[in-house]
Amino acid sequence: MHQTVPLYLRMLRLLRDEGAISRAELADKLAVPRPRLLAELERLVATGYVAEAGMAASRGGRRSTLVELNPHLRFAAVDLGASSIDVEVTNGRLEPVTAYAEPADIRTGPRAILQRVNELLAKAKSDGAYERLDAIGIGVPGPVSFRDGVPVSPPIMPGWDRFPVREFLTREHGCPAVVDNDVNIMAIGERHGGVAHSVDDFLFVKIGTGIGCGIHLFGEVYRGTDGCAGDIGHIQVDSHGPVCSCGNVGCLEAMFSGAALAREAAAAARSGASPALAERLASSGAVTARDVAEGASEGDITCIKLIRDGGRRLGGVLASLVSFANPSMIVIGGGLAQLGHILLAEIRSVVYRRSLPLATGNLPVVLSELGPRAGVTGAAVLASDVAFEQAAS
Predict the structure, then answer these.
(1) Which positions ≥6 away from 274 have C-beta within 8 Å?
(2) Of 34, 161, 262, 274, which one has the greatest count of Cβ atoms within 10 A?
(3) What are the chain's domains?
(4) pTM of the prediction?
(5) What is the pLDDT of residues 239-271, one digit of tens each?
């Protein structure tokens, strides 16, 4: 991929991912002649992206000067879920400087939600986390036109269709912004700092209020022509199933997601099929996916069956994707990853049984290492990339 990525961008990403490094080592790692590297570095120091950072350890001759990303660089990373807002402000190395998380309802619309994001960022500024932002990355729980920076007909986000999210944030904060689908930013985050750190081809499956799949191929997210690649929640798994939020019938998301699991759990509690869920319904008036996870860990047969049924349906869809894309890893994340090893065992069982042996011989199916931080981590990576691209000008 190096021949297609400009030198300045490779240099900035290396400093982001590895920290302070000597000029000599930088030239070695990037395999470029010293004069060319030094000219590029000089330009990046002049534009404020790179700073000197003291002397390197001696390599036998004259000691080289260390260079690093400017310590004043700041990126805002925002992960919007169906029912949550997570915001982090990071430094150039994507280490969190400050973070906020709170419940929110995405259905209240873009102005209310983005205004709250602005308030949280204003709080971070007043608390001293930054003087100015260099870029903002944001993920939303629905299809996104990455090129235009707008959500497109998102099923669970009424009022957000074609809302100019990127333009709104850029205008408000005076810096570039980038908008992506929430599962894509989770995949990017897991690639940057999680279990898929050294994997170029993998699928990141988010199971939460909805279900989506981040497709990472050749070291980059594959978004498709219009930005809706990986929308596996709307693959039909039962032609007689319930109506989905998208208007079709029997979608994976309608059969197995946070909302679907809560619906099935409530029915099991009311019918008395699950004593564990009946008890939780009586005490709190509602049951959630967490209640199902706890019931399963206590050995409740119905809770275990609900998780296995969901894992079997998801595993069937993933088996088809494995045969189609031949990834080298599948990572499971999102809120329902808390269903843990019963879910994981069922998914693995179906994927390994239904896919070709050649495709699954070396295919780990694992839980996300970053958990709830996968989204903000990926949003920070995207923010840094869009900021670094400005360094060309």
Answers:
(1) 265, 268, 295, 300, 301, 302, 303
(2) 274
(3) 2-69 (1.10.10.10), 75-189+373-392 (3.30.420.40), 197-368 (3.30.420.40)
(4) 0.92
(5) 999 999 889 999 999 999 998 999 999 999 999
